[in-house]
């Protein structure tokens, strides 16, 4: 396979400007993630007094030392929990991602009970369910480290209550699919949260700390007048010896996580692991250079072959139809020994590019090759010539092929993702297996200036049709509102906060992230589960 030759000049002015801008965005990302960690860690004295580990310490004790862990959706809820960006604490009150437990690749979720005692957050519900769906699609055991104060009744929203029920639905589906569901209960698991252990296949509860009841003492007294202690209602010892909810009784957090690791090791889950990967070469060009290649100005052209040269094994890329629909780039490569078909953009999608992409997607489905979409497009071409050339029908071919592709699909937003280009390049709405964004990525139905200009033309035309004098001040004010609205919702931090991807990643980590999720998909395709009609139920 031929290797790509880079034309990047690291000493160039544009490279240095890109690097400075992207480094600033990465600093912003790490600062937001640190804000969440610091707020949770501020509860350390309370956790120590209770003899407990902090949520991140629990996660660290559960996961294999030194093994990779892909944390997902770290910005969930950003600026949705608080209008002031400086006071927003992203993450949705959950830690979650794909890691190894006793050598087994698992989906691991931990309630971040260091923040508001783990109270349920609206975007935390969506994040939890996204992680469940990934576990089901990729055939991963699901481990939940539970300590949750339940719903925040002072900020009650009926839609949060309704949508929250889907989390129980997905737990039942995971179990019925033959995927082990394990709950490790470190603290309270109250009301609807009691069904977290109730719907799990295995439950580990910590003595004196874990609680699971449908109604705690205050609600029980309010509802029935009965007075009972927390231990009588739902203590760990009661559930281990009387109700039968718990299979394992642990002495403390560390002991519970030890039991969980031993439990996972006993499942024999790795029998279906894919064979060892062949030896592979690293890229010929440094990943560090991606900071100077990626642009924060989507109006400036970027040759995506430069990106491929820094993520593909040996920088090798066998391009398909390079002279046809040249603004759309398709071809074969490998990442850490795993074959991929790459679809990316050096400009808008035109009729030839859409046809070429549709053909290439079908070829990858025929060979069983996973698809990697590197988004960098302002959308499908418009104009009389393109409409007459069949842009609609050719774009539809691409979308048909994409929507029905039967191979893993992974999407990375590397730059612009505007209009129907977001759809055709496997945006979130087309349910890729995984979707990530670089910090400089921008997503919208169109650019802010184009949207404002469109609305100005419409507004001016409306005034003229009504016989009114064109009010330029009103049009200018409207333009400013539209631009502000679009700019506020377009950047990767905003879209990731709304879970429109699985997380914002450092461009330099792109190859590592892709290697991780490609391995997850490969393992899932090989694994044969033994589904049952219903999830596992306790006697």
Structure explained in plain terms:
By secondary structure, the protein is α/β, with parallel strands linked by helices. The chain contains 20 helices and 15 strands. The protein is 42% helix and 17% strand. The protein has helices at residues 13-41, 44-49, 55-62, 122-137, 158-176, 195-198, 217-224, 230-234, 236-243, 253-265, 290-293, 305-308, 351-367, 384-388, 391-403, 420-424, 448-465, 472-490, 492-497, 510-526; strands at 70-71, 94-101, 104-111, 142-148, 181-190, 202-206, 211-213, 248-250, 318-320, 328-335, 338-345, 371-377, 409-418, 434-437, 442-444. Strand 5 (181-190), helix 6 and strand 6 (202-206) form a beta-alpha-beta unit. The radius of gyration is 26 Å and the shape is globular. The strands form two sheets. Strands 1, 2, 3, 4, 5, 6, 7 and 8 form an eight-stranded mixed beta sheet that branches. Strands 9, 10, 11, 12, 13, 14 and 15 form a seven-stranded mixed beta sheet that branches. The protein has three domains: 23-272, 2-enoyl-CoA Hydratase, Chain A, domain 1; 287-441 and 491-526, 2-enoyl-CoA Hydratase, Chain A, domain 1, CATH 3.90.226.10; 447-490.
């Amino acid at each position: 396979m031929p290797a790509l030759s880079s034309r990047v000049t690291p000493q160039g002015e544009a490279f240095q400007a890109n690097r400075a801008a992207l480094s600033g965005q990465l600093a912003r990302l790490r600062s937001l993630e640190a804000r969440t960690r610091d707020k949770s860690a501020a509860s350390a004295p309370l956790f120590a007094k209770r003899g407990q580990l902090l949520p991140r310490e629990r996660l660290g004790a559960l996961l294999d030392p030194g093994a990779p862990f892909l944390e997902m959706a770290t910005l969930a809820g950003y600026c949705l929990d608080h209008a002031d960006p400086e006071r927003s604490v992203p993450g949705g009150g959950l830690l979650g991602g794909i890691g190894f437990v006793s050598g087994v690749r698992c989906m691991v979720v931990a309630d971040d009970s260091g923040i508001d005692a783990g109270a349920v957050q609206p975007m935390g519900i969506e994040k939890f369910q996204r992680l469940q769906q990934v576990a089901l699609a990729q055939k991963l055991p699901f481990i939940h480290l539970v300590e949750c104060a339940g719903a925040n009744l002072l900020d009650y929203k009926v839609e949060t209550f309704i949508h929250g029920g889907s989390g129980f639905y997905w737990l039942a589906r995971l179990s019925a699919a033959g995927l082990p569901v394990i709950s490790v209960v470190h603290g309270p698991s109250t009301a609807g949260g009691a069904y977290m252990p109730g719907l799990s296949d295995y439950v580990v509860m910590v003595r004196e700390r874990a609680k699971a009841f449908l109604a705690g003492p205050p609600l029980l007294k309010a509802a029935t007048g009965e007075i009972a202690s927390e231990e009588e209602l739902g203590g760990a010892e009661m559930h281990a010896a009387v109700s039968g909810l718990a299979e394992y009784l642990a002495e403390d957090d560390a002991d519970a996580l030890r039991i969980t690791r031993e439990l996972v090791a006993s499942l024999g889950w790795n029998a279906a692991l894919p064979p060892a990967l062949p030896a592979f070469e690293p890229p010929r060009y440094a990943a560090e250079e991606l900071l100077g290649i990626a642009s924060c100005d989507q109006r400036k052209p970027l040759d995506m072959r430069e990106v491929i040269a820094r993520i593909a094994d040996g920088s090798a890329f066998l391009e398909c139809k390079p002279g046809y629909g040249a603004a759309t780039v398709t071809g074969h490569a490998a990442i850490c020994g795993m074959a991929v078909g790459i679809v990316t953009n050096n400009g808008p999608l035109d009729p030839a590019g859409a046809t070429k992409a549709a053909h290439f997607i079908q070829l990858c489905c025929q060979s069983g090759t996973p698809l990697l979409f590197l988004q960098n497009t302002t959308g499908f071409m418009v104009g009389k010539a393109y409409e007459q050339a069949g842009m609609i029908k050719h774009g539809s071919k691409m979308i048909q092929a994409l929507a029905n592709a039967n191979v893993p699909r992974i999407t990375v937003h590397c730059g612009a993702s505007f209009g129907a280009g977001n759809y055709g390049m496997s945006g979130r709405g087309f349910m890729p297996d995984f979707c990530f964004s670089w910090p400089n990525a921008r997503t919208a139905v169109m650019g802010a200036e184009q949207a404002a200009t469109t609305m100005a033309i419409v507004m001016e035309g409306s005034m003229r049709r009504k016989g009114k004098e064109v009010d330029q001040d009103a049009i200018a004010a409207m333009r400013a509102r539209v631009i502000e609205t679009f700019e506020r919702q377009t950047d990767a931090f905003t879209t990731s906060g709304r879970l429109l991807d699985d997380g914002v990643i450092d461009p330099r980590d792109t190859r590592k992230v892709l290697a991780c999720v490609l391995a997850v998909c490969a393992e899932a395709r090989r694994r044969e589960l033994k589904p049952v009609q219903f999830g596992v139920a306790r006697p």
